[in-house]
Write a structure and sequence with these properties.
Elements: H1 5-10, H2 15-26, H3 37-44, H4 57-64, H5 73-101, H6 103-116, H7 120-132, H8 139-158, H9 162-184, H10 187-196, H11 205-212, H12 215-224, H13 230-244, H14 250-261, H15 268-284, H16 289-301, H17 315-327, H18 331-341, H19 347-364, H20 368-375, H21 383-399, H22 403-419, H23 425-447, H24 452-464, H25 471-482
Helix pairs in contact: 3-4, 6-7, 6-8, 8-9, 9-13, 10-13, 12-13, 13-14, 14-15, 15-16, 16-17, 17-18, 17-19, 18-19, 19-20, 19-21, 20-21, 21-22, 22-23, 23-24, 23-25, 24-25
């Protein structure tokens, strides 16, 4: 029973979802076959873990049918049927819940039904209200507008308003073409995934389109005609150029400028997407930390660090901001960031990230003992802390002259990186470069040799390695040796 697909699905339900599912099962409108409430109530006792020793098909059956014994073919068949039907209701409930939450798609169906019933006055009122709420742009928005305009096109035909029908036919088609163009320009992102996972890239229509399309002429015509889709298509074309010609950073800077100038044309989710596209490029090209800092501050200032208000602050993005502010020794920015946004982390990660963040804050303030205390409170089981916290610990040991512990930690991390599958080769190389340079720094520090030649050789080796996360700290330690 514990391995059934019904139980596996019910385990994923939140408390509110489970409560709403109970209402769904009990509703005569949704429950049109067998009465599944007795089975639901029997299962409800074991929610959410469904792990009790008493949790078995036999006990469930005998609680639903008091006085009857489970075990014969008939009882077994009946339970299979009930469980199967309740599972189907789970699927229907999830579909209904998704539809209920999708206001845009719901609006389309509502409008179309009002039109079909010839309630034209109500249609116009509802349409006006909906269309005024869809003033932002983006791939998803244009697709949604395609459906809304198609309803208005049909409404115009119903009313014999042929001029309006013609205009909305054009508008409908324009929206889907704009969305298709923008989506096609994202093909280079798909190629990046193909390269990262060594998946062969097959023929596809998007590639074919772009290789045979004179995009420069298209954009020029759009600009001349003040095409309202021009800034959207231009931005996504710049994404395409940036990813296709990765070594030419001019496309990145042009994209950054265009996104900032046109941010009000996009909704929150699209601005979030555009920021993350730029962050990915900056990460691939190993830009200096100052560029990361600019993008993070831009996301925070414009409230686009999350897709929606109800989302949690993603733990990886939070970690990245802490690390970059720390690397740049931005004390006030880091402290304000921790205090303002920690509460938006998922509760499961909140304490860990709080300790991780304050370890970094105290480290850049020079409170190394305090930083050491906070690192001791970090749960290393979460994968992003397995390396980050240890790297910080290495630096704390260096600052506190705990050289024996530092050497021991180097061996531990090197061994971990050699055998772990949790990190990509790019990440492993990044961390291995730092460990190698840290080891050189530590050997020079503990050897007592401080002649300028040895220091300069170390400095050249460090600059040769293109790792970003801790290069400022390494350079700072070298500069201290020069004094």
């Amino acid at each position: 029973m514990t391995d059934s697909k019904l139980v596996s699905l019910l385990k994923t339900f939140s408390k509110s979802e489970f409560k709403n599912f109970e209402k769904f099962v009990s509703s005569p409108y949704f429950s049109k076959g067998r009465d599944l409430m007795p089975l639901f109530k029997a299962l409800k006792i074991y929610y959410p873990q469904f792990s009790s020793e008493k949790f078995s098909v036999k006990n469930i059956y005998e609680s639903i049918f008091p006085g009857k014994n489970y075990g014969d073919t008939k009882s077994n068949s009946l339970m299979k049927t009930l469980i199967s039907e309740l599972y189907k209701m789970c699927i229907d409930f999830l579909a209904y819940s998704s539809f209920k939450e999708d206001e845009k798609r719901k609006s389309f169906y509502v409008l179309d039904q009002i039109r079909r019933r010839k309630h034209y006055i109500e249609f116009e009122k509802e349409y006006e209200k909906i269309i005024n709420d869809t003033n932002k742009g983006g791939i998803t928005d244009f697709i949604e507008r395609y459906f809304l305009y198609s309803v208005y096109k049909n409404y115009s035909l119903d009313r014999d308003q042929f001029n309006d029908s013609f205009e909305y036919t054009l508008a409908t088609d324009e929206n889907i073409v704009a969305a298709a163009l923008m989506m096609s320009f994202m093909i280079e992102d798909v190629k990046n995934t193909s390269d990262a996972y060594n998946i062969p890239m097959r023929y596809n229509l998007m590639n074919n389109l772009l290789e045979n399309l004179n995009t420069e002429n298209l954009l020029e015509e759009m600009k001349i005609n003040s095409d309202r889709f021009y800034p959207y298509v231009l931005i996504f074309y710049m994404i395409y150029k940036m990813n296709k010609h990765k070594d030419n950073t001019e496309y990145y800077y042009e994209l950054k400028k265009l996104v900032a100038e046109n941010k009000n044309l996009f909704g929150r989710e699209d601005n979030f997407l555009l920021s993350n596209i730029m962050l990915t490029y900056v990460n691939v090209k190993l830009f200096p930390n100052e560029e990361y800092c600019f993008l993070y501050e831009y996301m925070l200032e414009n409230n686009i660090y999350k897709k929606t208000e109800s989302d949690d602050f993603h733990i990886i993005l939070f970690r990245n901001i802490v690390v970059v502010f720390s690397a740049l020794e931005e004390y006030e920015k880091l402290e304000n960031f921790i205090q303002k946004y920690s509460s938006e982390l998922h509760i499961e990660h909140r304490d860990n990230m709080y300790n991780f963040s304050f370890a970094h804050l105290n480290f850049i303030k020079g409170n190394f003992e305090k930083a050491l205390e906070y690192t001791g409170k970090i749960n290393y089981d979460i994968f992003i802390f397995k390396l980050d916290a240890r790297i910080l610990l290495m630096k704390i040991y260096y600052e506190l002259s705990y050289f024996e512990q530092a050497y021991s930690l180097i061996d531990s991390i090197t061994h971990f990186l050699r055998y772990t599958n949790e990190f990509s080769d790019i990440f492993k190389n990044h961390y291995n470069n730092f460990i190698k340079n840290f080891h050189r720094l530590l050997k020079l520090k503990t050897s007592g040799v401080s002649d300028s030649d040895s220091i300069n050789i170390l400095e050249m080796k460090i600059k040769k390695e293109k790792q970003t996360g801790n290069i400022l700290w390494l350079q700072k330690k070298i500069d201290e040796m020069k004094l």
